[in-house]
């Protein structure tokens, strides 16, 4: 049994469903085999179908991870919001670069 934490992100996943890293590795192997050629039409079609199922699995896991990250970010911002209302410093938001002004030649140095 794998100890990959990404498997727990999708509660609808069955015991046979691979985690993201395993699915992505399998997908890469299928792509390499298809690109190498030498497969019969039936073999190539079967591998293509298997690859599409792995793509769907990877997308499900990525969507689940994105939702979890968004939820964590939103919860953090809501938890920090009351402090900003009381006059404290504004909370850092993840989509803002912390050092946007680094490297500006027009700005004079304080020392």
TrEMBL record:
UniProt protein name: Exodeoxyribonuclease 7 small subunit
Keywords: Cytoplasm, Hydrolase, Nuclease
Ranges of Acidic residues composition bias in the record: 97-111
UniProt keyword annotation of Hydrolase present: yes
Top-level taxon of origin: Eukaryota
InterPro entries (alphabetical): Exonuc_VII_S, Exonuc_VII_ssu_sf
SUPFAM superfamilies registered for this protein in UniProt: XseB-like
Organism phylogeny: Eukaryota, Metazoa, Porifera, Demospongiae, Heteroscleromorpha
Any single biological process term in GO: DNA catabolic process
Biological source species: Geodia barretti
Annotated spans, Disordered: 1-20, 87-111
GO molecular function: exodeoxyribonuclease VII activity
HAMAP family (alphabetical): Exonuc_7_S (MF_00337)
Keyword Zinc carried by entry: no
One GO location term (cellular component): exodeoxyribonuclease VII complex
């Amino acid at each position: 049994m794998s100890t990959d934490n990404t498997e727990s992100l999708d509660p609808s996943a069955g015991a046979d469903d691979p985690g993201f890293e395993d699915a992505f590795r399998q997908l890469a192997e299928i792509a390499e085999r298809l690109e190498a050629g030498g497969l019969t039409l039936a073999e190539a079609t079967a591998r293509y179908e298997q690859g599409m199922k792995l793509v769907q699995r990877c997308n499900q896991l990525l969507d689940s991870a994105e939702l979890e990250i968004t939820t964590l970010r939103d919860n953090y911002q809501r938890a920090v919001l009351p402090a900003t209302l009381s006059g404290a410093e504004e909370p850092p938001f993840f989509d803002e670069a912390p050092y946007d002004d680094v490297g500006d030649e027009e700005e004079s140095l304080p020392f």
